[in-house]
Amino acid sequence: MKAMQIVSFDGAASGLRYQEALTPEPGPGEIAVDVDHAGVGYVEALFAEGLVPIDLPWTPGLEVSGRVRALGEGVDGYRVGEAVAALTITGGGGYGQVAVAPAELVAPLPAGLDPVLAAAVPANTTTALIALEEIAHLRRGESVLVHAAAGGLGSQMGQVARLLGAGRVVGVTRSEAKRQQILDLGYDEAWLRGDLAEAEPAQFDVVADPVAGPARLRSLELLRTGGRLLALGDASQDEDQRVSTTSLWLRGIGVIGFNLGAYTQANPALVGGHLRRAVELVASGELSVHVTDRLPIQEAAQAVAAVRSGSTTGKIVLTQVQD
Question: How would you classify this enzyme at the top EC level (predicted)?
Fold first, then answer.
């Protein structure tokens, strides 16, 4: 098959190459998928820069839509040719013409769901559901602050918070141009990163932060007693911030890390359940996913670089051409 692979740790611009690769076969409990579309996420940039341990060459891609190609031993409930979405996070591979995923992490596509849209669902929408419901235990009426609110994950965090009954949802961005986009996503308010310094303390129950850096420390000050900060990433690649556990104790607040890859390894069935729920919610219109660009797989490097720069909103989806 053909695949877009990481061949060196020189970053997206020069470290990715579209080339021949071995076609993966499903093992016991796995499903092979003929990939039509793959979502682009920030983690692909981390892989391309060597910030996540991988062996080269490596086929990135954590989320796809396509059709069932083959079923591994012991898999039932699916048929060859069936339209599906899959979370390929346990081994990557989404940027190949064929990808393999555990059957638990595959979701049938409801009739009428655009497969391009479906490819943008598995990582971010599933993360938002698990992080807010299972990890932060968001309760009805609570207030939520979301960093990078216009991005792929941020666009889902605000909507899921509202779906779960949050009373106030505020989005944060570093760009004045993205303010209106945040409001269009259903956020009650759109703040610039600089607004955090002047914000009244102790006004949020949950802060969702995929950015890290100094803003993470300031976000702790914005939590009221019983508040939870979700550490969801390190997009800023800034120096790690030290947090006093004594301060957490005295104020009665907490910091909780959530990594979808690690969580999936430990809880595949639970993640799979939320994946299928995410697909159904998008298909029904209860949640919306905004695909801002659809590009051929050969332009994966440009797509990954754009996401890495923080200039994008919503999701970019790559289309895989079958030879």
Answer: transferase
Q: Identify the CATH number of the domain defined by range 2-120+289-319.
A: 3.90.180.10
DSSP 185-241: TT-SEEEEGGGGGGSPSS-EEEEEESS-SHHHHHHHHTEEEEEEEEE---TT-PPPP
d(CA 156, CA 318): 19
What secondary structure letter does DSSP report for 38?
A: E
Rounded Cα distance between 215 and 197, Å, is 9
- The answer to whether residues 279 and 254 touch, using CB atoms and an 8 Å cutoff, is no
Q: What kind of architecture, by CATH, is found in domain 124-260?
A: 3-Layer(aba) Sandwich (3.40)
Name the nearest CA neighbour of 187 among 223, 214, 161.
Answer: 161
Q: What is the pLDDT of residues 283-310, one digit of tens each?
A: 999 999 999 999 999 999 999 999 888 7
Interval 132-166: pLDDT, tens: 999 999 999 999 999 999 999 999 999 999 999 99
Distance in Å from the first CA to the final CA of the chain: 8
Q: Which residue in 172, 62, 192, 175 sits closest to 127, CA to CA?
A: 62
Q: Do domains 2-120+289-319 and 124-260 have the same CATH topology?
A: no
Please work out, in degrees rounded to the nearest 5, the angle formed at the alpha carbon of residue 187 by the alpha carbons of 160 and 200.
110
Domain-by-domain residue ranges, the chain?
2-120+289-319, 124-260
Look-up: residue for tokens 């971010």?
Answer: 124
CA distances from 303 to 36, 45, 48, 206, 248 (A): 17, 10, 12, 31, 39
Is residue 182 a contact partner of residue 314, using CB atoms and an 8 Å limit? Answer: no
**Percent composition of the chain: helix, strand, coil (DSSP 3-state, to 5):** 35, 25, 40
